[in-house]
Design a protein that fits this description.
Blueprint lengths: L9 E5 L4 H12 L3 E6 L14 E4 L9 H4 L4 E4 L10 H28 L6 E6 L11 H19 L3 H4 L2 E8 L14 H11 L6 E4 L3 H25 L1
Parallel strand pairs: 1-2, 1-4, 2-3, 4-5, 5-6, 6-7
Helix pairs in contact: 1-6, 3-4
């Protein structure tokens, strides 16, 4: 949960050079937070009052090299991803690697860091999945990758050990179409989405849903509820 002005946290944002990443960065910087931005960009991003305090270059598949940077972070926002319409097999592989497996690796690394953290400050990780997790996006590779990361997050949260729950909070961000380079016809503006994310993160809700589609607000809580029940059955069976 967002801290008071007297106790600002360090925010880490992947995909910080994208449309939503830029707006999240601006918002957190305006409110006095330190922001570490993770980017794939080959150029050296500039640093000013609307950019991260620090830029970190990284590559998918090499998440483990970021541990020293992740240890500095209190709230990690996983926002990176791709949206490609190619029918090639390589596109499916890239979508799954970047949109799903990379985020899952970040989650596992951050969980280990949280468990080893001796500070009383609870770590948080917010993961941007998309309503394409269960709703059509006219892009099979994107839908498959989002469905995968969505399921992984749900199982991770519901099967989390009690010791981990005391150290780490997981929030799933479900977004509808917003305007960006990947989706120039998106309905919502990145600025609007970033502010809604900031406001909703102050609640105790696990799901942060921002979409113009009313079905999203109905279907996702139902899906998460059945995932919860399924995991309870697993717990009972194991015991």
């Amino acid at each position: 949960m967002i801290d008071s002005i007297q106790n600002k946290k360090t925010i880490g944002i992947t995909g910080a050079s994208g449309a939503l990443g830029k707006e999240l960065t601006k918002l957190f910087r305006q409110k006095g937070y330190k922001v570490i931005g993770f980017t794939h960009s080959k150029t050296n991003p500039e640093i000013n009052l609307e950019t991260p305090n620090e830029w970190i270059k990284w590559e998918c598949g090499k998440e483990s090299t970021l541990i020293k940077h992740l240890k500095k972070i209190d709230i990690l926002i996983l926002n990176h991803g791709i949206y490609s319409l190619s029918r090639e097999n390589s596109n499916y592989e890239n979508s799954i690697e970047i949109n799903a497996l990379s985020k899952f690796k970040f989650l596992n690394l951050f969980e280990d860091i949280a468990l080893a953290n001796k500070s009383l400050v609870k770590k948080e990780i917010w993961i941007n999945t998309s309503e394409a997790e269960i709703l059509p996006a006219l892009n099979p590779s994107y839908e498959i990758s989002k469905s995968l990361i969505g399921q992984l997050i749900s199982f991770k949260k519901n099967l989390m050990a009690n010791d981990t729950k005391k150290k780490l909070t997981i929030k799933k961000i479900i977004l509808g179409p917003f305007k960006s380079e990947l989706n120039p016809i998106g309905i919502m503006s990145p600025r609007f989405v970033s502010r809604k994310i900031f406001d909703l993160a102050n609640t105790k809700n696990y799901l942060i849903i921002i979409s113009p589609n009313p079905l999203t607000y109905v279907l996702f809580p139902i899906k998460e509820f059945f995932n919860f029940l399924y995991c309870q059955i697993i717990y009972k069976y194991k015991s």
